[in-house]
């Protein structure tokens, strides 16, 4: 759970919880009267579009409780992926991307030090930006040129969504401080616009930056695992959202979550 001024983030609520929240809000707004004139209760709609969605169940028949992703969007991460792969910078753009990312690592290390939980959560708010920016610009390009995208729009948007799910997961295990929350607005605002302009100037440079960012992410999550193994960070049970999203065993722990997230980052590096 992730309280903000005493209220949990709505994005991490399950469908049932949202119905309770919406029902409470409706009751408060209407003086506690939550019934229709014919005596029946008002139907609480938990869909973003105001349309009640179909009832979704798991394979075992139990209700699916997440509204931010569906069972067919879940998967099992490939933990056998090569974590040490590295694209050696050869061209000028490669070197520019490489050293840009390296220069950004130093202030990040100084600020977060070994608070890897908050570090992971904060960096995921940035990591989910490139895929959305790239997908958006390719979408506009496809419209302008009246041509297909070759499948890359969906690939990049899926990557952005995957990074966002990393954030939804670490929200459940980390408690950022107020100034770290404020930092998200600044960093995301600067990074979004900088990456947008970089993509307009050179998509190849922009994608190479992401490749090196993912290499650094693999390194950070490896250090996270070392701290978990040493006992410096408590290996708490895995959040329910992570268990369903990555199809993890019910008794999985935070270490298992970090393992699958690191494998995701390696896949993004390769893309």
From TrEMBL:
What catalytic activity does the UniProt entry give for this protein? 2 a ubiquinol + O2 = 2 a ubiquinone + 2 H2O
Paste the cofactor note.
Binds 2 iron ions per subunit.
Top-level EC class as recorded in UniProt: oxidoreductase
GO terms (BP aspect): alternative respiration
Q: Which membrane topology describes this protein? A: Multi-pass membrane protein
Q: Where are the annotated segments for Disordered?
A: 18-40
| Cited InterPro entries | AOX (IPR002680), AOX_sf (IPR038659)
Subcellular compartments: Mitochondrion inner membrane
Q: Name one GO molecular function term.
A: alternative oxidase activity
Name of protein: Ubiquinol oxidase
């Amino acid at each position: 759970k992730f309280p903000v001024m005493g209220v949990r983030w709505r994005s991490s609520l399950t469908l049932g919880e949202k119905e309770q929240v919406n029902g409470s809000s409706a009751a408060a707004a209407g003086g506690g009267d939550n019934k229709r004139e014919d005596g029946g209760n008002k139907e609480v709609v938990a869909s973003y579009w105001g349309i009640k969605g179909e009832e979704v169940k798991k394979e075992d028949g139990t209700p699916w409780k997440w509204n931010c992703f569906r069972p067919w969007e879940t998967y099992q991460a490939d933990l056998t992926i090569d974590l040490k792969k590295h694209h050696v910078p050869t061209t000028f753009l490669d070197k520019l991307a490489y050293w840009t990312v390296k220069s950004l690592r130093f202030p990040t290390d100084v600020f977060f030090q070994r608070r890897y939980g908050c570090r992971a959560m904060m960096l995921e708010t940035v990591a989910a930006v490139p895929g959305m920016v790239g997908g958006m610009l390719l979408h506009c390009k496809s419209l302008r040129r009246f041509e297909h995208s070759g499948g890359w729009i969906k690939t990049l948007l899926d990557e952005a969504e995957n990074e966002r799910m990393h954030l939804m997961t670490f929200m459940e295990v980390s408690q950022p401080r107020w100034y770290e929350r404020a930092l998200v607005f600044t960093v995301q605002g600067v990074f979004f616009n900088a990456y947008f302009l970089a993509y307009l100037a050179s998509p190849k440079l922009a994608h190479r930056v992401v490749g090196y960012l993912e290499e650094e992410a693999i390194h950070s999550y490896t250090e996270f695992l070392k701290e978990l193994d040493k006992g410096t960070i408590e290996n708490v049970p895995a959040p329910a959202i992570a268990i369903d999203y990555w199809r993890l065993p019910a008794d999985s722990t935070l270490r298992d979550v970090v393992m699958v997230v690191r494998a995701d980052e390696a896949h993004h590096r390769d893309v």
